[in-house]
């Protein structure tokens, strides 16, 4: 039987809600929320906003002040136990003299998992783990995968007509999907650490592949301007001014410049990219990928770059948790065949383009139905006039 009370659930739900406020800004760090409660009331709360800045527990403890003594801290992820750019949060909770810590899940990093919990217990603090663990894991699939496997979480975006065509026979494709669907894509880009594409896609569309402020929904724009001090009541702002120094007005231009731009990673084996392309005229880092003379050099076999090696390098050398892929049928097929796709995001427009168009996926060389790539549909929703499907490839060994 669970030892968690209805109030425990209520406070952890709040912590999870707070954690979501950092989904566009925390990478490569995880999204974390914290609530500190005493005598059935919240006395402090916070969330992690950006790597290098204070963690959720720090904001919550600052808000709670002396009320943290004897309180219970609800954290969506095990408090850290090591010194990085910020001190360990477990140490902060100990110094604040909280009586109990409830964390939704352990740190997925096998090298540090459980150490924060043990540090708290060694200090005499009661610790419980596992409250709303499934919800907590859903907050950080990319961070968890990288910590556990050394590989990034890969989302493959595709857009097609209802009959599965991505372009007319002459290559024209703008625009298959609605403005609302293209806006929806911007939110996925904003959450990613890298956008992967090919030089062909970049050149054909003169694509920038960046996060465009004006195309982001208002709800996303507001999150970029949000600071944890927004959790405080107006009467508390002066009292807690040392927590977050907010100006009276958030400058719109400052918000735009603060948008975290994913690294654009472009497969350019034949060195076709030129500096005059929009890709290089917009803010954000660009990494060219090839077999030699590139920013990232990969093994090449049969005129194909080793995509698994690419993903490994992005995770280990560039600290990328989450890769968003926007490319044509050939790269999409290669990623799927090599088992490198964790999730597909497919937009289907209510249009018919005919069999002489260009298909969604390149040739896979399949000869029997047992070889087909099966998908587990995770979600279906309407976006504008289009249908957005979210699906995960089914692993053969799990069938």
Automatic annotation (TrEMBL):
User: What SUPFAM superfamilies does this protein's entry cite?
Assistant: Cytidine deaminase-like (SSF53927), Dihydrofolate reductase-like (SSF53597)
Looking up CDD domains in the UniProt record yields: Riboflavin_deaminase-reductase
Q: In its keyword annotation, does this UniProt entry include Isomerase?
A: no
- Organism in which the protein naturally occurs: Vibrio cortegadensis
- Cofactor-binding details, from the entry: Binds 1 zinc ion.
Tell me which UniProt keywords the record has, alphabetically.
Hydrolase, Metal-binding, Multifunctional enzyme, NADP, Oxidoreductase, Riboflavin biosynthesis, Zinc
Annotated pathway, please? Cofactor biosynthesis; riboflavin biosynthesis; 5-amino-6-(D-ribitylamino)uracil from GTP: step 3/4; Cofactor biosynthesis; riboflavin biosynthesis; 5-amino-6-(D-ribitylamino)uracil from GTP: step 2/4
Catalysed reaction equations from the record: 2,5-diamino-6-hydroxy-4-(5-phosphoribosylamino)-pyrimidine + H2O + H(+) = 5-amino-6-(5-phospho-D-ribosylamino)uracil + NH4(+); 5-amino-6-(5-phospho-D-ribitylamino)uracil + NADP(+) = 5-amino-6-(5-phospho-D-ribosylamino)uracil + NADPH + H(+)
User: Under the GO molecular function aspect, what terms does this record hold?
Assistant: 5-amino-6-(5-phosphoribosylamino)uracil reductase activity; diaminohydroxyphosphoribosylaminopyrimidine deaminase activity
Boundaries of each CMP/dCMP-type deaminase domain copy? 6-128
Q: What does this protein do?
A: Converts 2,5-diamino-6-(ribosylamino)-4(3h)-pyrimidinone 5'-phosphate into 5-amino-6-(ribosylamino)-2,4(1h,3h)-pyrimidinedione 5'-phosphate.
Which family would the database say this protein is a member of?
In the N-terminal section; belongs to the cytidine and deoxycytidylate deaminase family. In the C-terminal section; belongs to the HTP reductase family.
UniProt cross-references to NCBIfam families, sorted A to Z: eubact_ribD, ribD_Cterm
Q: What is its EC number?
A: 3.5.4.26, 1.1.1.193
Its required cofactor(s), as named, are: Zn(2+)
According to UniProt, the name of this protein is Riboflavin biosynthesis protein RibD
